[in-house]
Specification:
The chain has 436 residues and is mainly α. Helix content is 81%, strand content 0%. The radius of gyration is 21 Å and the shape is globular.
Length: 436
């Protein structure tokens, strides 16, 4: 990273910053291939047989995993800070997601219960991995460079998604040329994704340093003791956030606008195939290109965010999202839909990376993991709200995906209104002031 002395905290090396960014590289293959490009469409069309409730069933399965993360993320974050175990929990999440993703290769037509179980486990581990890795950002980057360092990590992460997609696309070509079944075609992509996650994340975690110091007199505690202490620290963090109204306002904003982001992630391939008639190969190419524009969006926005400020930068991202929704709703030709997809890529990279940097800016020192646990609650609530709303609209309207996409735009509009009430500079000063 150019200008590393300005970007990184004292004691944090460029090698460690790259290792942290590589966690984004590793885990993005899961969300790109499993949730966005391949398994979602396979679940709706093949596992569920394309029944009327298939899209709603997909969103409900994901909602179970996100509900579990909502319950556990704050406690795991508090425990990670209390016992200095962020790194250990990240290793466990990596192995759990890798194994469950690999087992998705065994899911065939009609095996909806087995698919649902594996999706819940794999997505729970993925979301936990993402939340805990984000908590390392304030330990590595200087406050003035949260946007840039987060943007670098997210951009590198999208490149990881590209690698997973490229490998999957190559496999699909080989499998289809040999007339393999849909299960074999999709199964190969699941194995590629799982292998990439584990082989990149574990070496990166070996480099990453655990800087937190365990709280005194906790080393020999039993489960009930550290769980009670974790809840106590989480409660303390929530109480502290009472003196940080801008943090609370921003978490509400994230919960709303991220509902739209999560909807696009969970249903992009379904929309492409059900509305535009895309094949699996076309969908993979589409998502591959979207990952390129998302990487550009995350990197470019990281630079802009530190210059424009968190509020104006995120407003720009949300305006991109609103424009994307309008284009996708209007699209009746492939070129217009491709334009909408690339707008989504730019907006996705900007809004996701930007939110992580903004939370780091608002986090109280010593409570980063808990604060990102609260962020995880907001994000995972949005992952329930958005996709389920989309699924309900398609069910009510008889699979009218265009109507559901238009309804998704409301999340970005409301999010924009909520964002206008957040003063990030005031929120940062409140976070740095002594707790009352």
């Amino acid at each position: 990273m150019h200008g590393g002395r300005q970007l990184l905290r004292s004691g944090a090396s460029k090698k460690e910053a790259f290792a942290w960014a590589s966690l984004d590289f590793a885990n993005s293959g899961y969300t790109t291939v499993v949730l966005t490009a391949v398994f979602n469409a396979y679940f709706v069309s093949t596992v569920m047989g394309g029944v009327a409730l298939a899209t709603l069933a997909w969103t409900l399965v994901l909602s179970v995993s996100y509900l579990l993360v909502m319950i556990t993320a704050p406690v795991l974050g508090a425990y990670a800070d209390l016992r200095a175990r962020k790194k250990l929990l990240l290793i466990m999440a990596t192995l759990g997601c890798g194994l469950a993703t690999a087992l998705l290769a065994s899911v065939g037509p009609g095996m909806w219960a087995w698919a649902a179980l594996l999706l819940v486990v794999s997505n729970f581990c993925y979301a936990t991995h993402q939340d805990l890795s984000a908590a390392f950002l304030p330990e590595i980057a200087t406050p003035q460079a949260y946007g840039r360092v987060s943007g670098y990590g997210w951009a590198w992460g999208y490149l990881g998604g590209l690698v997973a997609l490229a490998g999957s696309l190559a496999w699909v070509g080989i499998a289809q040329s040999h007339a393999m079944s849909a299960q074999e075609v999709v199964g190969g992509t699941m194995l590629i994704t799982a292998a990439l996650f584990v082989t990149v994340a574990l070496p990166a975690l070996a480099v990453l340093r655990e800087r937190a110091v365990p709280a005194q007199h906790t080393q020999d505690w039993q489960l009930k003791h550290w769980l009670a202490a974790s809840w106590g620290r989480l409660h303390q963090t929530w109480q502290l956030s009472g003196s940080q109204p801008d943090l609370r306002r921003f978490l509400w904003c994230v919960a709303v606008y991220h509902a739209g982001v999560q909807t696009v992630i969970a249903l992009a391939a379904v929309y492409a195939q059900q509305v535009m008639g895309f094949s699996m190969a076309q969908t993979l190419v589409l998502i591959l290109l979207v990952n390129i524009t998302a990487a550009i969006g995350a990197w470019g926005f990281g630079l802009l965010q530190d210059q424009l400020g968190h509020a104006r930068g995120l407003m720009l991202a949300l305006l991109f999202w609103i424009g994307m929704i309008i284009l996708a709703w209007m699209a009746d030709t492939e070129p217009l839909f491709w334009a909408a997809a690339n707008c989504a890529g730019l907006a996705m990279g900007a809004s996701q990376s930007g939110a992580r940097a903004a939370v780091a800016h608002l986090a109280r020192p010593g409570h980063q993991a808990e604060t990102f646990g609260l962020w995880g609650v907001a994000v995972n609530f949005s992952a329930i709200l958005g996709p389920v709303s989309y699924g309900v609209v398609t069910w009510i309207t008889g699979n009218a995906h265009r109507t559901a996409m238009l309804a998704t735009g409301l999340f970005f509009i409301v999010g924009l209104v909520l964002l206008m009430r957040v003063d990030f500079d005031r929120g940062h000063r409140a976070a740095q002031s002594p707790a009352s």
